[in-house]
Design a protein that fits this description.
- This protein has 106 residues and is an alpha+beta fold.
- The protein has one domain.
- It is built from 2 helices and 5 strands, in the order αββαβββ.
- The chain has helices at 4-20, 57-70; strands at 33-35, 44-49, 75-80, 89-92, 95-98.
- Strands 1-2-3-4-5 form a 5-stranded mixed β-sheet, covered by helices on one side.
- A hairpin with an 8-residue loop joins strand 1 and strand 2 (44-49).
- It is globular, with a radius of gyration of 13 Å.
């Protein structure tokens, strides 16, 4: 079984490659999104969406498929940084949890 740190890196790489097909990753808000590259522990990644038109059902499905394929005990926080106020979501392999809410795993 892979270590938690290795799983974090592998999931980051998979998310990075998948989302690059849909838009541009940039940490200071100049892209469509940013996959946070700091590991704060737990079993989650975080995507900050900067372009309000970026996030779509197709992208959400792709993220979920990645989780189903190899990371069933992980989640992905999605936070909408710009545009009209809207709640973030947490994408899990088996569905979403709309914020506010507690993540399943810390």
């Amino acid at each position: 079984m892979a270590s938690r740190d290795r799983e974090w890196e592998d999931l980051y790489d998979r998310l990075y490659r998948a989302l690059a097909e849909f838009g541009k990753d940039h940490p200071s808000g100049e892209g469509d999104y940013w996959i946070v590259d700091d590991d704060y522990g737990g079993q989650h990644h975080k995507i900050c969406v900067n372009n309000e038109g970026f996030w779509s059902p197709q992208i959400e499905k792709r993220v979920r498929d990645i989780l189903v394929e190899g990371f069933p005990h992980w989640g992905v926080f999605v936070v909408f940084e710009k545009g009209p106020a809207r709640p973030g979501i947490i994408v899990y392999a088996d569905g979403n949890v709309i914020e506010p809410g507690e993540p399943r795993w810390r």
